[in-house]
Amino acid sequence: MSRPIRHWLALAFGLALSLSVLATGDAAEPAPASMVVSLVVQQSCLISAADDRVAPAVSCLHGEPYLVSQADPSSMRINSAVEFGAQRTANALWTVTF
User: Where is the signal peptide (predicted)?
Assistant: First the structure.
């Protein structure tokens, strides 16, 4: 590239840079813009039970809340408290609610 062309390119670049600095000096602040962001957090819980008589152990990766309850078998007809206790331990149905 010849020297006069480089000189004119440098002069044009300097002029453009000067004009851009002067133009932003009096410009108003840009208006705030809104932005939509979505976030997905995967839940991971491990439920383990060794025995039907003991409530299952629940361990969640991110500490999610949960509730462990033993469901009453609604279809069974129970005549006494002793029969209820025997059937409850024999047919344990645990529910983990998240």
Answer: 1-23
> DSSP secondary structure string, 25-64?
HSPPPPPP------------EEEE-S-TTSPPEEEETT--
pTM over 0.85: no
Task: Give the pLDDT of the chain (98 residues) as one tens digit per residue.
Answer: 566 777 788 888 888 877 776 665 556 677 888 989 998 888 888 888 767 778 888 888 888 888 888 876 555 555 555 555 555 555 667 888 88
Please answer whether residues 71 and 95 qualify as being in contact, where contact means their C-beta atoms are separated by less than 8 angstroms.
yes
Considering all CA atoms of the chain, what is the largest pairwise distance in Å, rounded to the nearest integer?
109
Nearest to 97 by CA among 66, 73, 61: 66
- What backbone torsions phi and psi does residue 97 show, to the nearest 5 degrees? -110, 130
The amino acid that residue 23 corresponds to is A
